[in-house]
Amino acid sequence: MLIGKRGWKTSLAYILVVLFGLGGSVLSHRVHPLLGYLTAAATAALCIWLHKKAGLFLEDQLVLSLKQKRLEAKAWYFESVITNSGNIIFTTDIEHRILKFNRGSERAFGMSQTDVLGKEVHALFASPVEISALLARVDEHGSAEAPELLIKQADSGEELWISLSVARMLNRDKEVIGEVFNCSNISKRKQLESQLQEKNEQLLRLVITDSLTGLYNVRHLNAELGRVIRAQKRFPNRPVSIALIDVDKFKIYNDTKGHQAGDHLLVMLGNIFMNEIRQEMDSAYRYGGDEFVLLLPDTKAEGAKVICERILSAFRKMRVEPTSLSIGIAQYLPSDQNMDAAQAVKDFIQRADEAMYSVKETGGDSIGFQTAV
Fold this sequence. Notes:
alpha+beta, 5-stranded antiparallel β-sheet, 5-stranded mixed β-sheet, 12 helices, disordered N terminus, Beta-Lactamase, Alpha-Beta Plaits, 20% strand
């Protein structure tokens, strides 16, 4: 029982103490009986004391051993969780060199831990400058986040979007030993956002675009004219012109050739506008029926006439008998700034309309315009 509980070394120590104690008792008894009894009693007391101390010592050792095993098991458990996690987790040292690269990171970046071990963390990202700025914030605040970062997989070349958070790693003495990076793959979310944005843009185009010609519609014209006129109050010296274009004898052509031919003519005319105006600056609108409007920012009436002459020439080359174009040009007047935006838009279009009808009354196929006063 003793051997089973305390171990053979402890038991052997007890046996030796007892034997020496008995031997000492016998010798002491031969010298003097009382001395022998005292020696035996001392030996018994020593055995009891040793038994107690040995028990406490062994219990302490057992507790320490259990604690050590639990710590090792816990460390192994967390190491296993991090290593096998599908999340993107990796760590760096104080020089920002990669120490640990879990399986989630290997899949996301298309590299193994062996490939990246010891390399600077900046090499993982498409924009090292962003990572440097992120680490600077970590140095200042202890942690930092980047909601969206682009990475490129080394094996497939595929681009992924990730959300990234970085925090300092500290040892037991609260000393900085590196950083831990925790990332999430947000590529699907970005894809959905992109699809949603594309759908919204398509819907917006449907709302502001003429379905036949692909030009902007009159609703968008009114909105853009209002915006341009409001801007004129801030920049009164920047000229703005519009051109109102009408197809002469379109009804005759439409009735003679048919509606499909008439629609085709309007589509071709819309293409001429888009070829002749300045891209990313001017804009063309179907005003209604066979009437169109060109909005020409930073353009005086004389410059608008040059653009309209090119349009008139291109339409003549189409030889769509008996049609032609009547074009009226108006430039925004300084006096219009005293009106409210809605009235200024109405007056602006009316002056271009009057210029266009003056051309139509003289037979069409020409340009009329009003300059600023």
